[in-house]
Structures are given as structure tokens and as C-alpha cells.
Structures
1.
Amino acid sequence: MRHIISILLENEAGALSRVAGLFSARAYNIESLTVAPTEDPTLSRMTLVTRGSDEIIEQITKQLNKLIDVVKLNDLNVHGHSHIEREMMLIKVKATGSKRDEIMRLTTIFRGNIVDVTPNSYTIELTGTSDKLDAFVGSFECDSILETVRSGVMGIARGNSALHV
Amino acid sequence: MELSGSEIIAQFLKDEGVEYLFGYPGGAVLHIYDALFKADEVKHILARHEQAAVHAADGYARSTGKTGVALVTSGPGMTNAVTGIATAYLDSIPLVVISGQVPTAVIGSDAFQEVDSVGISRPCVKHNFLVKDVKDLAETLKKAFYVASTGRPGPVLIDIPKDITDPNIKIPYSYMPTISMRSYNPVIKGHQYQIKKAMELIKRARRPVFYTGGGVVLSNASQSLRALVQRLGFPITSTLMGLGAYPATDEQWLGMLGMHGTYEANMAMHETDVLIAVGARFDDRITGHLEHFCPNAKIIHIDIDPSSISKNVKVDVPIVGDVDDVLTSMLKLLKDDQDNTDQEAIKDWWKKIRQWRKKNCLKYNKKTKVIKPQYVIEKLYEVTKGDAYITSDVGQHQMFAAQYYKFDKPRQWINSGGLGTMGFGLPAAIGVQLAHLDQTVACVTGEGSIQMNIQELATCMQYQLPIKIINLNNRYLGMVRQWQEFFYEGRYAMSYMDSIPDFVKLTESYGHVGMQVDKTSDVEDALKEAFAMKDKLVFIDFITNREENVYPMIAAGKGQHEMELAPDSELV
Ligand SMILES: Cc1cc2nc3c(=O)[nH]c(=O)nc-3n(C[C@H](O)[C@H](O)[C@H](O)COP(=O)(O)OP(=O)(O)OC[C@H]3O[C@@H](n4cnc5c(N)ncnc54)[C@H](O)[C@@H]3O)c2cc1C
Ligand SMILES: Cc1ncc(C[n+]2csc(CCOP(=O)(O)OP(=O)(O)O)c2C)c(N)n1
Ligand SMILES: [Mg+2]
């Protein structure tokens, strides 16, 4: 099953490579990984998306917790808890002739924003779940996509519970 | 107190109570060596190779329970140290390794003797640090000792760029006696509810067995283990790493388990209904084929590292905590409790175990003219009255030492189990002997392994270390040869060396005593003579039976109950 793991990490050089190294050394898979400092500059918040059986996910969280730089972590996909996840995408597409209106309509339907325009192209910003971004990408023909860049998933638990020190 | 970075290191080591520093100098650590020279507080032992320096620090740590400390230079010094660091990592041994690094300003420029030490060591350390500001140095050193020695112990590397140790930059220093880290809080106390659950299982057990490991030694829990096991009357076995935590001469002791464990230990594992795993990590040398592992057992597992629990084998009652703490709680519950164990069932269980014991699976033919390696170890045990520190290298000789020397005390048996590092034995013995100057230390080795760090004979001479080297010389990389005999139809590819040195002359050239023995009848006298030379290193080259195999053996992929015993033809 797919799991989103939120991690509070010491904001130190090398902390990220410890996490990445753990995954490669133990042959766990990483689907995506995002990281940035928090409001407390000594801490980084990482969101990691991985897949595995319950046993493997249990080992992954234990091994992550064992890293000295990991302060706290939370598996957002444990039973009985719900969470919000978002990913952001910037996508540059060919936009000429009648396509220009069509793309604008599509962008509105998906609640995206066109953030840059040239005579031949649009750059569109879109946030949502990964599925939504996939659907948006899928609505273009392959050769009309010039470039895409995605942030990877960020997640947060619903309700009052919060991951902080 | 205003000190430079290098003076801080020297002063800190003294304040931390470090007795020995094992190392080798080079450009990036010259400031540090100068400060150590001037301070002259911590005793520095000059090894002849960085790998050996780290193994010596490791042997010191294993035999004392204290943190071993090594100092190496940047680049090749650090890369040489990696095998030593990985050896300590796999066996959870507390070490602090200080490596020099090129100056901060040139890091990343492929400077002379620059390697990414933090990157290279990352997968084989518990944690590592790069010190980027001399103001962080003292705190980082403290953190390193704290992390290395607490929780599940392990090696910690501190990489220190040369400019950080500049003798001209002085800053205030004071020693921090304790430290805490928000991201590191090992669990010591076991969960009472889990402990109670475990005790319920234990009381209902009909065929219980204790499976103990290195964690008992690391936790200094021998006393509580003995008390609990004797109070319950259960059989006990141990991994290679746990030998000595429970006395091998005791009636309840079944011998080692696993690939080369005893018949009774492995059969008891196979038939047990309640397995009590204590500070052991279900290594593949123990479990054999996972499907056949303890098929009828409910499993209780005590371990300080949550990631050891249910890693290879799913357990029923996990208890995260320090072995000594948990066993003490268990004993207390037993004392408070009138209910006893199922005495009748336990009696029947012992009957069954005695049947297995009758196989006498470690039997071998003692009447041969050529020396049997097993015989040498048995005589070593007798001559040293079971009281020596025994270090070992890796191979058949290691297994023979584990099977035939009856360890009654923890920390008496020092070997590389997890990484299986040939070349460990002699340098480890250096650390052990320095830590126990008035005790007997012997290194059991093979002609292959000893050559991997033979240069340390010079270190032994420099520091006058009277180690006894027991070389079981079968003229083969025996463990490899055994596998080739069993699984490759006897094609002995590269398990034989065409050129083996004259060990007697070699030893003598380093200034020590060398002896060679090639007849069974001379073994005992030779050992007596060697151990009588209290202040000399003696290298005894025992010419042993060439194609001796280690039995019992569970072939890789086989179940615990599918052991192969020595063929009868071997026993006449
Ligand atoms: C040639 C060769 C053959 C081998 N054959 C065998 C064999 O036949 N049988 C055998 O047993 N081994 C054998 N080994 C060794 C094997 O590879 C493993 O090293 C060994 O089995 C592991 O022992 P262990 O489970 O006790 O774990 P260790 O590596 O000693 O691990 C200790 C465990 O205890 C935990 N721990 C540490 N401190 C504490 C504490 N304070 N409180 C609680 N828990 C703690 C740790 O988290 C860890 O899980 C062989 C090795 C070689 C090189
Ligand atoms: C550094 C290293 N290289 C290779 C091995 C693989 N290996 C394991 S046992 C062994 C043979 C050891 O030979 P020797 O020291 O003569 O001991 P014997 O088995 O003959 O008693 C080898 C090569 C190892 N464990 N360590
Ligand atoms: Mg050999």
C-alpha cells in the first residue's frame, strides 16, 4: 500500500542524504520526497511517499526513527486517521490558435492558474492530489506538453493533532 | 580555559576518562598529534594499519564495555579504517573514531588526501559528524560519546577539518558532563504491560527455551539472566555473540545455536512452544530457512532497538527496552507471584532434550596423529583453566573456538560475528590485553586470517603485549574449502595458497617467540610452555588436519532440524 510519511528532521547538512541513503541501502522504494525548513529554522519538514506491505512500512518507520537526525515522524496512512495531501505542478504546454481557449477552459475546470503566456505557449500552475495532477496531464496530447515539474506530495493530518516538537 | 581545537580534543579525551587512543598519524591530524604529545595524558597506541587501530579500539570496547577510541588521518587513513568501523557497526560495539579532514576552505575540491568521509562511512556508522566550527567541537565530541555508548551501541565518526584544530585559534572550553539531544532518546524501561503478558506466556510454557544474544553482553545483564534462567529451570542457548553471558559449564546450557550450533540447541528451537529471545536479532545464521523456524512457538522478544523486533521473524510479545531492566522486572514479577511454571511439562521437556544431548554432536576422534583443531581448543581451555580472554579471526577456527572453549564469563569471547572480518583477531587482542594487562589473552586464528593483519606483531612488540597466538594452520582457507567440498563438488577454487610463510621465523623477526607443533601428543606441552612465558608473545603454529570440517552444520536454506552431523566414519 501507498504510505505518506511526515518527518521532522534536524535542519543539518547531510540529514537529507541519511534518509535517501537509508532507502537505497535497504532497497525500500521512494515515490516522492519533498523537504523544506519549517517556521523553526533548526527543523526541516519532509514528506515521503513510499509503497510496501505492512511489514515493510513498519520497518521503514522504525529505521527512519532510528536515524539520529529524525526528531519525530508520523505515518499519515495509519488506520482511523485522515489527512490532506497536496502536490503542486507547473506545466508548460503548446498553446496556439483554437487550442488557446480550450486550454484556458480546461485550466478553469481544474482550478489552475495560467502564470505565464507567450504567443505559442502557456505555463499553468495547478495544485491538488497527485491523481488530479495526473488527470490534468492526461488531458493533453503528449506532443503538446513542453515541460512539467512537480513538487512531490506534501501531507498533513486532519484535526487538532500536529507534528511538532 | 582557552584552548585550540587540537587542545580541546586532548583535554576532552582526558575529561571523558579515555584511557587509550588507538591511531596512526598523517597530515590532517598533525595538529592533534602535537597537542596529544604535549598534553601526554591519554595513552596513544600506534598501530601499524588504521584497520588494526580500529579493531584494537573495538577489542578494548568489547572486553571492557567502555567506548573504544581511534584517531586516523584523512583520505587513505579514513578509508583504511572503514572495515574496522563496519565490523563494530554490525556487532553494535561503542566506538568513537576521529578522522582528520582537509581544511574547510578546500573541502570539495579533490584536495590532497580528501575523501568524503561522512559519505563513505554513513551506511556503517550509528551516526557521524563533520565539525565546521571549532565552537561546536567540544559539544560534538560529547554527543559522539553519548550516541556511541547508549541505546543500541555503535560506532560514531567525527570528521574534523585541519583548520578546526589550528593551534593558533583559541576559544573557551569547559567539559560538559552530560548532554541531551531532542532527536535521540533510547527507550530503557520495558513496558510493564508487555512484560506481564510475557510472564503469562512463560508460566504456561511446556517446551520453553531462552535464545540469548549479544544484547545480554552489551547490557551487562549476565547476573539477571542467570538468576531468571535458574529460577525458571528452562534450557538456554545463545548466539555466537552471546557466548559467556550464561556459563557454558552449567547444566541448563545447551550450547550455541545456529548454522554450527549444537544438535540439542537447534532441535529445542525447532520444537519449542515459547521462545524467549533476549538481545538477539534473528540473524540468518540462526533462523535457517524462515519457513521452518520455530514452527510451533509463541515468541517473546526483548530488544532495545525497535527495528530489530519483527524484522526477520514476526514476534508475539515485543518488549522494547534494556535487557537488564526487563529481566530484572521479570524476576520481580516471579517473586511476587505464587503461581509456578508447569513443572511436569518442563520435566518431560528436559527428558527430550537429554535424548538429543546423547547424540554428543561435538564428538570427534581424539586419537589421530595429525592434530585435530578441536583438540587444540579443548587443550587451550584446560591449560588456561577456562579463564582466558579469547579473541578470534574468521573461519573454521572461529567456529571450533566457539564450540569447544567453554565460556563462563561475558566479554571473555571477542570475535567478529556480523561482518565476519578476517584480520580482526590479532588487533582486537591488542585492545583486550591493554585493557587487562594482568590477564591471559589468546588469539585463535588461521593461516589465512592472521596474514590479514600480521603487521600488528610489531605493535605487540612496541607495547610488550604477551598475547598467545594459536594458529590452526590447515593450509587452506578452510571455511571456504568446506563449502566448496559440500556445494561445489570439491572444486577448491582459490581456497589454497601456494606460498605460506614460515610463521616461526616471521614471528622471531618481529622479536617474539615462535613455535611449531605438528603432533597431537605435543599439543598440551606446547601450550603449557607457551602460557608459562608470561611476559612474551608466543605464536604457536599448529599444523592441523587439512580437510577437517565444522559440524554440525545447517546448510544455507535448510531448516533448523535438518542439521548435518559429522559422519560416523570421522568418529572411529
Ligand atoms: C563464519 C561464521 C559463522 C557463523 N555461524 C554462526 C552460528 O552458527 N551461530 C550463531 O549464533 N552465529 C553465527 N555467526 C554469527 C552471525 O553472523 C551473527 O553475528 C550472530 O548470530 C548475531 O548474534 P545476535 O543475534 O546475538 O546479535 P548481535 O549482533 O549481538 O545483536 C545484538 C542485539 O541485541 C540488541 N541490544 C543491544 N544492546 C541491548 C541492550 N542493552 N538491551 C537490549 N537489547 C540490546 C541489539 O539491538 C541487537 O538486536 C557466524 C558468523 C561467522 C563469521
Ligand atoms: C576480509 C575477509 N575476506 C574474505 C572472507 C571470506 N572468508 C571467510 S572464512 C575464510 C577462510 C579463512 O581462512 P583461515 O583464516 O585459514 O581459517 P580456516 O577457515 O582455515 O580455519 C574466508 C576467505 C572474510 N570472512 N573476510
Ligand atoms: Mg586455514
2.
Amino acid sequence: MNAPLSPYTAPPTPRPVSSHTLSVLVDNEPGVLARVVGMFSGRGYNIASLTVAEVAHADHVSRITIVTAGTPEEIEQVTLQLDRLVPVHSVTDLTLRGEAVERELAMIKVAGRGEDRQEALRLAEAFRARVVDASTASFVFELTGAASKIDHFVELMRPIGLVEVSRTGVAAIARGPEKTP
Amino acid sequence: MSASPIPAAQGAKQVTGAPQMTGAQMVLQVLREQGVTTLFGYPGGAVLPIYDQLYGQGDIRHVLVRHEQGAAHAAEGYARSSGKVGVLLVTSGPGATNAVTGLTDALLDSIPLVCITGQVPSHLIGSDAFQECDTVGITRHCTKHNYLVRSVEDLARTLHEAFYVAASGRPGPVVVDIPKDVQFARGTYVTKRSVPEHKTYRPRVEPEIARVEQAVALMAQARRPVFYTGGGVINSGPEASKLLRELVQLTGFPITSTLMGLGSYPASGPAWLGMLGMHGTYEANHAMHDCDVMINIGARFDDRITGRLDAFSPDSAKIHVDIDPTSINKTVRVAVPVIGDCTEVLRAMLDLWKARDLKADASALAEWWRAIDKWRGRKSLSFRPSTEVIKPQHAVRRLHALTKHRETYITTEVGQHQMWAAQHYDFEEPNRWMTSGGLGTMGYGLPAAIGTQMAHPDALVIDIAGEGSILMNMQEMSTALQYRLPVKVFILNNEYLGMVRQWQELLHGKRYSESYSHSLPDFVKLADAYGALGLRVSDPADLDATIQAMIDEPRAVIVDCVVSKEENCYPMIPSGKAHNEMLMPDDWDVDLDRVVDAKGRELV
Ligand SMILES: Cc1cc2nc3c(=O)[nH]c(=O)nc-3n(C[C@H](O)[C@H](O)[C@H](O)COP(=O)(O)OP(=O)(O)OC[C@H]3O[C@@H](n4cnc5c(N)ncnc54)[C@H](O)[C@@H]3O)c2cc1C
Ligand SMILES: Cc1ncc(C[n+]2csc(CCOP(=O)(O)OP(=O)(O)O)c2C)c(N)n1
Ligand SMILES: [Mg+2]
């Protein structure tokens, strides 16, 4: 007989988990970020990336972009649970909608001398990373692009002399002329 | 995130010559405008300006509880029995934290509350000031929404909004935290009418008609249908119960309900199957398991209902009516979701059913009823009667028999007595049954009875209690006496934390760890000490007379009804089992290892 299945002990069924990017428009009132983040922690969902900033100053509206992973059912619940929060204007699953531009900015510090410096600069050029700080022993590169591109660049820098990385998290927006509802 | 301060009275129309007043005066003015006549609370430093405004006025009756948890449950009882928003007022720090259990209870049972908390003055926030706590932080997870009011210019609008949010859509508790300086400051009052429509929160009430059409079409094809109704019908108001009764009659379908929905369909009605779920009837659970079309109206597929999810009603197409989209497909996938208020959806269903002159297959339905009658024949709520000792089920049945001709409201604590009350007290009307379902809060019943009695001064209000639970908020007897509230506490005293003992018997090898109720007070003397009437009954022959004496007494009463100690509450679906694997009242000599396996023991 199957093991009993209940909301408490349901074994983690090996169902396909996929990454989704959610765009959440919120009223920029105090505590709104805590509400959004608290919903994820309180209900056991994960946040892979989170960005937030005011996007319409006069209307006090901020956009929160969240990358989360889950089964289709979980993603649906996450979306509905976010939408239920009182200060939330709208939630759009950009991944489900398809056709979104997703970008992240990273600053990557690399230290080294001689040949390593040359190699770092060559790779930076190939990735269109900009040098935003330099010393005789280090560079700070600024790189914008898909998260996967940044991952890739960071991995290439590691053997050369990666010191540290700072990333903004993903910002995303739907393609085409329409406004996200 | 940049927490840019919201400008004063944002969005609200600035009426020239609008009244200027202090924040504390605004609180009272909003309460008046919102039609609040009863307020449950407890004073302290951070709410003294508001208490000062309460002094000597006659519009709003303040009920001084004896513990802030009591204020929250009293407000819940008031709200659930009257359909209004329940309101409580507590001080900062310990006042707020004491209210947290009641707020959480209201969140899980979808009860509309507005809880006003005092806060230390704005300039002290964050400094670990005396009686400071992060009230909005603490209550963020146990409220539907909460606010910290930073400026007196925002206060009236925020309070009006709190009432709107608490009562709209899926109801729930809302906290408004008001620093003391804001209570003293003067500002412009914003009337209820001049608050603009809410910018973001506008829950859908009217259903999509295409969905209702799908639902009705599915119902008309059903051969083995069942209505599974819940607390949403009660939340929606008495009209929803009326429409539900009409729909049940028109379709001829059987109906069961969750613990939270009892009374929406009368227990004496011909289509009634009794409550379903862990302690539901054999017929209700079997009908749910075997049905081909399940019509869920305002219930949320709680785990006390579904049991084993993979075995839950495996062959049915499910319709789910709910005002909260997150309830849909949360644990159980459904074929036809209908988002909307129960009243509106039921009305639309009825209209369509009538307009199209629909009928379910009569012979299939007759066959379904024959199956149900067979299940009914198991008499799953039966118990071994006794002439020596009072059986708790019998006590509830007698209580029902002797009170059913009156306007009676029942509240409960949590445990076996709660389940026996649900099973054996036959509810005929909505809003007559106040119980803590989702959180299962021991100590709920007495304060809830006080709130209920405040809303219905002339009605009979009885808290069916356990001797364990009643001690959790016993202090509220003092409140009952102060306001001359004739609440009746009917303790089914089995000298055990009975529900715990039952689980230990069935799941932990009869090792009764800490579940015996040691050193109980003498409840009769305790009643006397509070100035109430205390009665004790242990002989079944005296039961009726004692209940009658309780009813006839104009004061509050505590009845210590001494019942059989080791009675178990059946039927029971052990955790992790399917609906058709119930433990029945005649199963008492079961081989326990067969009943519950190791996995089941892990469940709650
Ligand atoms: C010891 C113990 C044992 C228990 N055993 C059982 C048991 O055997 N059987 C049982 O049934 N329960 C039992 N319970 C209670 C159980 O835990 C749940 O509280 C209960 O089953 C939930 O009831 P519900 O599904 O009606 O949902 P509720 O919690 O009442 O939720 C109502 C639902 O309706 C929706 N809604 C609200 N307002 C509206 C509206 N206006 N229009 C449309 N939809 C609306 C809400 O969004 C929500 O989804 C037990 C509790 C305890 C403490
Ligand atoms: C505040 C709280 N603590 C613990 C529990 C766990 N619990 C559920 S039922 C129960 C026993 C209740 O005993 P009693 O009030 O005597 O009721 P009985 O089951 O004996 O009828 C306990 C401890 C709870 N529901 N609430
Ligand atoms: Mg007991």
C-alpha cells in the first residue's frame, strides 16, 4: 500500500520544478516588502532572486521582481497568495506569459597580476563587461545580462582570481507595447 | 525598500471646514460611524487617551475583559453570532501580545475583527521603550492586514479602511497600531463616505456566469452528487443559508457540512447527512468518498476533511465555490472553480437551475439515496447508554432536547466535548454555533459566549466545555458577572484532556503522559467564588433537572457535569486513512497496530 499522503507528510514527489519570474506591483507603503517576503517564508516557498524599487513615484507604486521555483501548482498558489496581500496591485507570471526581458547587473572584483590581468580583460571584453574600478592588482567589472551569463562570467573569473561578487538580482519586464496589468 | 511616508490623508477628499479633533476622538467617531456599539478591551498606558474618550459617553459599550485573549475571542463570538465586525482595544506590548492567539484564531476561521492596539509614542519606536513591542511585525502573520498609523491625518481613513478590509472578501482580523502621540495629536476627521474606493483590495463577489453554467450543467448530470458546505456559507450571511436550503430542496441532493458550516442547513432536514471529516458520520464520509459530483460551497478542503489526499473522493468531479482564489486548487484539484460570494453564486445557480428546468436523473438519485440509507443504518453516532454514569454524548443530547425551543447559541472549547457538541447538538440555524475550528484554541468558548451574549442579550448562550479547556480563560467568569451576562458553562468533566488521552490510547500504547487533569478546582465552589451559580451532576437520573435549573437561573452558571472518564469520540478517521477506513463506535477492541501504522502516528 502507498504511504499515507497528507498535507503534512506528502513526500516530495519528483514532479517537474521550474523557475518562474514574477512581477509584482505594490503600493509602496511601509512594511510591504516584509509582507511579500513573509508570505514566502511563512508558507515555505523559496526566493531565488528579489529586486525592488519604486517605479512610479507620484503613485507610490513599486515593482518587486521575484524569481522562484516550484511545480506549476505551487507557482499558481504563490501567485494567488501574493495577489491576496492587501497592498498588491497586480501579479504577473512573466515566465508563464512568455516573452519577457530579464536582466541582472553584477559587479565582480578580480585580483591578479601579469598574464592573469590580461586574461581577465580579454574575457571581460568578450562578455562586454565594463571596468568600473582598477588598481595595479585588481579590477572591478560591471556586467549586465541574463543571470546565466553572469554565472558563466563569474565561473571563468574564479581560477583567475575572483575576490567577490555583488549582484542586483533579476529585473524583468514584458516585451511588446502593453503595460503589465 | 524606501519606505516613503504616505502624505497626509492621501486620496481622501479634503472637505473645507472638516471637523478637527484629536486622534483619540477620531477613534470613537470612526467606531460610531461604522455602527459599532460594543467594544471589548483592556486599558493600559498606551491607550489611555482613547479610554479617556470612552469615559462618560453612551454610544459605545465597553466590555472590560480580564485578559486580552478573552477580548479577542469575545469579539469573535460577537462577530460570528451577529454577522458584524468584532472590535477590541488593547494596550501596547503585553496587551498586544496577549491578543495574538485570538487574532490567529480569527484568521484561521475567517472571522472579521478590528483590533486597535496602543503603541509607544512615535519618537520612542525602536528604542525598546517601556511596553514596546513590534506589534505590526508580530501580527503580520496572524492578521489579514495590519497598519501602524504614523500621522493623525491618516488615522480616520486607516480605521475606515480596516473595517472594509476585515469585512470584505474572505473576512479576517485587522490590526491598527496607534502610537500614543497620534492619539493626542489634532487632525482632520475623514468620514466613511469620503474615503475613496480601495486602491488595491477589491475582492470579486459576483461569479463569472460561464462558470456557474458549467457547475450547474455538471450537477444536472450527476448520478451520485453531494453538497459539501462550510464556513463560507455562514460568512456570507443568513441569505446564503436560505438559498442553500432552497437549492438542496430543488435538486434533491444530499448535503453534509464541515464543523464551521453547521446550521446553514438544518439538522432536521431530510437531506442532512451530518458533519463530515475526521469525526464525521459514516454516511457523510462515505457519500463524499463515493460521489461522482462534489459541490463544495464555502469550504476549504481542510486536512480534517480530506484525510489521505490520494484517497480523497477519487472518482468525483469537483465544483468549488469560494471567495478566496487561494482556496481553489490549494490541496485538491477541482474541475469547476467558481470565485464569488456564496450568496451570489447560490442565487445564480438557483436561477439557472429553475430557468432551464433542470433535473438530475431521478432513478440514479433514488439509487444513491438507497446507498446512503444503508450507511445511515450503521448509526455511527451511537454510543453505549448507561444508567450509572453520564455519557457525554447523552448529556449533549439532553442539552439539545431541553434548549431547542429557545433561541440558543452554543460555543465550545476544544477537545472531545467540542466534537460531541458538533455531533449531537442538532443545529437548525446559522450563526448559532461558535467554535474554534482552524486553530483549535482551548479557552475560546467562555469569552466567545460572553461576546455572543453581548450581541444577543435575551438569548440562551451555553459554552459546552471540557474541564481542561475551561481553565484556560476561566478568569472571564468575572467579566460575565460584571455585565450580568447569564452565560452557562456546561463542563463535560471527564477528568482528562480527553482528546489527548484518546490519541494516546490509539496511537501511543495507552501511555497517558500528562493528560490526566490533576488537582482540579471544585467547580461549584469556583462558581460561587465568582458570584455565579454552581451545580454538579453525576447521576444520569438528575441530568435533566440540573440542565433545567441551569436554564432557569438568571445569573451565570457553571455546571460540573461529571461524565464517563474514558469515553472515546467516534466515529474517527485516524490520520492518514481514507474516508472509508473509519473507526466506528463498535470497534473498541480493535487491534491498534492494524488501525494506525507508523506513518499515521506522525500526523496531527
Ligand atoms: C479537535 C478538532 C477536530 C476537528 N474535526 C473536524 C471534523 O471532524 N470535521 C470537520 O469538518 N472539521 C473538523 N475540525 C475543524 C477543522 O479543523 C476546520 O476548521 C474546518 O474543517 C474548516 O471548515 P471549512 O472548510 O468550512 O472552512 P472555513 O475555515 O470556515 O473557511 C471558509 C472557506 O470559505 C471561504 N469563504 C469565506 N467567506 C466566503 C463567502 N462569503 N463566500 C464564499 N466563500 C467564502 C473562505 O475563503 C474559506 O475557503 C476539527 C477541529 C478541531 C479543533
Ligand atoms: C491552547 C491549546 N493547547 C493545547 C491544545 C491541544 N489539545 C487539544 S484537545 C486537548 C484536551 C482538552 O481537554 P478538555 O478541555 O478537558 O476536553 P476533552 O477533550 O476532555 O473533552 C488538548 C490539550 C489545544 N488545542 N489548545
Ligand atoms: Mg476533559
